């Protein structure tokens, strides 16, 4: 069985699908690429059984008939975190504290940064929109560095290309050379729901649905949380 996902969920999906296979369900080969590229390939009619993307992207694909709308299932909730380069290259660890006291402190940090890294996909779009809403676009536009498709913001930080980076927490945890400051404060939090759906091109839709159901079951909760995601409300 073939599936495609955005990079943000590659590790958690790897473990979730392995657990599903251990439970006797069909094995799934998940290819993780940039979210924009994943959606394009689905639209191009590539033979896929399951598609895992952010809610907005999946809703668009469902509206166009590329995935079965009735199968769209929320799987994980991802919060965006802020991070800086870590001296010594130690792997990044999660922290329970917010990165900044409030939105005002986050604005100050963005204005003070020399180079600001952000990702492709919904979290990056939301960050840029927030910067525009704060009236900072003209001030920091030439300091914004969007990660290339398939390249995590963590790599930009570790390589010294940026001194402040924003990406899903799950993408930062465990990466070398990164210090996680925390998730964004409640008054400017960026949260993305990633869902799965059965592709219109699926060769065995019923089997694909059975895998999807397992990924959304209670058995998956511990895996999801271990990868620094949250479990969606069911």
From TrEMBL:
Question: Superkingdom of this entry's organism?
Answer: Bacteria
Query: Where along the sequence do coiled-coil regions lie?
Result: none
The Swiss-Prot or TrEMBL record annotates one GO molecular function as: molybdate ion binding
Q: Which SUPFAM superfamilies match?
A: Periplasmic binding protein-like II
GO BP of this protein = molybdate ion transport
* Name of this chain's protein: Molybdate transport system substrate-binding protein
Task: List the source organism.
Answer: Microbacterium thalassium
């Amino acid at each position: 069985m073939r599936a495609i996902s955005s990079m943000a969920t590659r590790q958690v999906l790897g473990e979730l699908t392995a657990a599903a296979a251990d439970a006797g369900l069909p094995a799934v080969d998940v290819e993780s690429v940039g979210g924009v590229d994943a959606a394009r390939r689905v639209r191009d009619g590539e033979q896929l059984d399951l598609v895992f993307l952010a809610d907005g992207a999946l809703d668009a694909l469902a509206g166009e008939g590329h995935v079965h709308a009735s199968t769209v299932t929320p799987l994980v909730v991802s919060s965006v975190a802020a991070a800086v380069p870590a001296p010594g290259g130690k792997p990044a660890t999660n922290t329970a504290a917010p990165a900044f006291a409030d939105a005002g402190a986050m604005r100050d940090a963005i204005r003070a940064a020399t180079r600001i890294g952000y990702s492709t996909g919904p979290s990056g779009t939301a960050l840029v929109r927030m910067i525009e809403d704060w009236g900072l676009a003209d001030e920091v536009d030439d300091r914004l560095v969007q990660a290339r498709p398939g390249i995590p913001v963590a790599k930009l930080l570790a390589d010294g290309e940026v001194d402040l980076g924003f990406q899903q927490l799950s993408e930062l945890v465990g990466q070398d050379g990164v210090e996680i400051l925390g998730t964004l404060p409640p008054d400017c939090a960026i949260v993305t729901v990633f869902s799965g759906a059965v592709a219109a091109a699926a060769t065995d839709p019923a089997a694909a649905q059975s895998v999807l159901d397992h990924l959304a079951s209670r058995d998956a909760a511990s895996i999801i949380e271990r990868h620094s995601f949250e479990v969606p409300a069911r």
